[in-house]
Recover the amino acids of this structure.
């Protein structure tokens, strides 16, 4: 199987060398677990280390804020955008109903999935993107209220992306409780994401307060013999680092 290096320190060796190429990987977890940082790192390192242009579609945050936040890791997105190696697509403004002054933005009339996908895939083609991030699925599906519509939409996204030859990260929010406790475990908001995605990575916290550790585990990765452990991770000023339990508790 062809693989694509993730750019996340310590992750590739847990999944036989990288994400399966041209597939969709779901990153799920509660808010603040590092989904957006990890997704951006996948794009940023993809460009710098592997010369693969990338597109980040943001439904939750304003692009300008993302550019600022990512500077904390030394990632200068504006520089990459200037050179057409990265495109930040503003879908947040359309959702909120404010005009966008971004070069790449989704118009309010383009929020239905068919138009949205066409627009996104056009931008991907324009810069020759090999990597794509849709952050996040719940925000993207916000205007859909029927479960059946949401399922169809997510299926369509994954199918179109597979045909386009791009490797894609989708993010999804899950509340903390649904990952533990007695209730059935959910790894994604609508559950259909976790079934149709080719891989599912779950990010979270173990413990509480100053004793808490960030965690990551690989719930599913099609065609891959992967680690089944819960791995401690760190978000440092270099980005996300995935560790092994034995390296941390020695
Ligand atoms: N420069 C940094 N150094 C260390 N941790 C950071 C840094 N920037 C952000 N973080 C951590 O990452 C979290 C945000 O991660 P994010 O990817 O936005 O979460 P999610 O998308 O899952 O909601 C912050 O709450 C903070 O704990
Ligand atoms: Mg986020």
């Amino acid at each position: 199987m062809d693989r694509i290096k993730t750019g996340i320190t310590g992750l590739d060796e847990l999944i036989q060398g990288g994400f399966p190429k041209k597939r969709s990987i779901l990153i799920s977890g509660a808010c603040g677990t590092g989904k957006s940082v990890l997704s951006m790192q996948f794009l940023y390192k993809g460009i710098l280390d592997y010369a693969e242009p990338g597109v980040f579609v943001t439904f939750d945050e304003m692009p300008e804020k993302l550019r600022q936040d990512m500077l904390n890791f030394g990632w200068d997105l504006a520089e990459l955008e200037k050179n057409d190696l990265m495109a930040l697509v503003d879908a947040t403004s359309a959702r909120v109903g404010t005009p966008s002054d971004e070069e790449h933005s989704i118009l309010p009339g383009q929020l239905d999935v068919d138009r949205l996908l066409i627009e996104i895939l056009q931008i991907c083609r324009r810069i020759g993107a090999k990597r794509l991030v849709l952050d996040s699925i719940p925000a993207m599906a916000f205007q859909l209220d029927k479960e059946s519509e949401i399922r169809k939409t997510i299926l369509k996204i994954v199918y179109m992306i597979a045909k386009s030859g791009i490797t894609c990260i989708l993010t999804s929010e899950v509340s903390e409780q649904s990952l533990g406790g007695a209730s059935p475990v959910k790894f994604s908001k609508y559950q259909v994401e976790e079934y149709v995605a080719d891989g599912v990575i779950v990010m979270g916290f173990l413990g509480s307060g100053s004793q808490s550790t960030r965690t990551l585990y690989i719930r599913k990765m099609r065609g891959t013999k992967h680690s089944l452990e819960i791995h401690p991770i760190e978000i440092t000023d270099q980005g996300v680092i995935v560790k092994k339990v034995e390296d941390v508790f020695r």
User: Anything to note?
Assistant: The chain has nine helices and eleven strands. Residues 29, 31-37, 72-73, 235, 237 surround adenosine-5'-diphosphate (ligand 1) (CB under 6 Å). The domain at 3-7+22-201 is CATH 3.40.50.300 (Rossmann fold).
